[in-house]
Write a structure and sequence with these properties.
This protein has 253 residues and is of the alpha+beta class. It folds into 3 domains: 1-64, no CATH class; 66-112, no CATH class; 124-243, 3-Layer(aba) Sandwich (GIY-YIG endonuclease), CATH 3.40.1440. The protein has 11 helices and 6 strands. The chain has helices at residues 2-8, 14-27, 32-40, 91-99, 114-117, 124-128, 154-167, 173-181, 199-212, 228-238, 244-252; strands at 69-72, 78-85, 104-109, 131-138, 145-153, 191-195. It has a 3-stranded mixed β-sheet with strand order 1-2-3. Helix 1 runs antiparallel to helix 2, helix 2 (14-27) packs antiparallel against helix 3 and helix 7 crosses helix 8 (173-181). The chain is elongated, with a radius of gyration of 32 Å. The protein binds zinc ion. Zinc ion binds at residues 139, 141-142, 144, 177, 181, 183.
């Protein structure tokens, strides 16, 4: 990076380019001490590939860099740990420089995680605004989940579920689970499993998902319309009866 800045600059502007590079590294959260050490501790090769003169070399700061941690290895030798902000294509090269020294260890640290700079692309609110979906709700107190489908938006359907739970309606498997076991549902963690505009397609997809779940609080009657053949084929592909090869071998015996 440094030699590139030097090579691309006219000899009169080398110092200015290196100073600019230093500012860029500071903007990228590199500690100034490390920048000074790595940027100014190595000789600058100028445009003509000649060694630079003393006047061309910037001042080298001799401030010692403080390690993040110092420990003793099994031979009683002190090992210093330094953490460098991770910058793609740069940090590992710096770490490689120190790999040959057994008493210096370099670790990467994430300074600006993307997730901290940007908000989640899909907020729970956006999920709640979906219509014509097959959804899953997870119990917070056990590993059972509920699968349902709705033509309304998910938020409206969940409001109905909450109302059923509050009123102790026992015709729905979800409300029955909540009321009989005094368990709580993770309403905000609602997950969309499938989408379909037609009621028939959604009902079929709902049954397929209930059938594929091991831990579901849905009632057996929720899947009774699923053709026995479909159920068997789905189970076959989910590995319930072993691998397809095993099933085929058993079938031919
Ligand atoms: Zn539960």
């Amino acid at each position: 990076m440094k030699s590139r800045a030097v090579k691309l600059s006219h000899s009169d502007y080398v110092e200015e380019s290196v100073a600019l590079l230093k500012n860029i590294l500071i903007d990228n959260s590199y500690p100034e001490k490390i920048i000074n050490r790595f940027l100014f501790h190595t000789a600058i090769v100028n445009n003509n590939n000649q060694r630079p003169t003393a006047q061309q070399l910037p001042n080298i700061t001799n401030t010692p860099l403080e390690p993040n941690r110092v420990t003793e290895d099994q031979n009683g030798q002190l090992v210093s740990y330094f953490s460098l902000p991770y910058i793609d294509n740069l940090t590992y090269k710096l770490a490689n420089v120190f790999r040959q020294h057994n008493n210096i260890k370099i670790a990467n640290k994430q300074v600006k995680a993307l997730s901290k700079l940007y908000s989640r692309t899909k907020t729970p609110l956006q999920i709640m605004e979906n219509w014509n979906v097959v959804y899953r709700l997870q119990c917070r107190d056990c590993d059972l989940s509920y699968i349902g489908q709705t033509s309304r938006n998910l938020k409206g359907r969940i409001t109905s579920h909450k109302s059923d739970c509050r009123r102790g309606v026992l015709s729905c498997a979800l409300s029955e689970h909540v009321n009989n076991l005094d368990h709580r549902i993770d309403w905000d963690g609602a997950e969309i499993l499938d989408r379909a505009d037609s009621f028939c397609k959604r009902t079929f997809l709902e049954m397929v998902h209930i059938n594929s779940q091991v831990n579901t609080m849905n009632k057996r009657s929720d899947t009774q319309s699923l053709s026995v053949i479909y159920g068997y084929i789905l189970d076959l592909y989910s590995g319930k009866y072993g691998s397809l090869r095993q099933v085929a071998t058993q079938g031919s015996q």
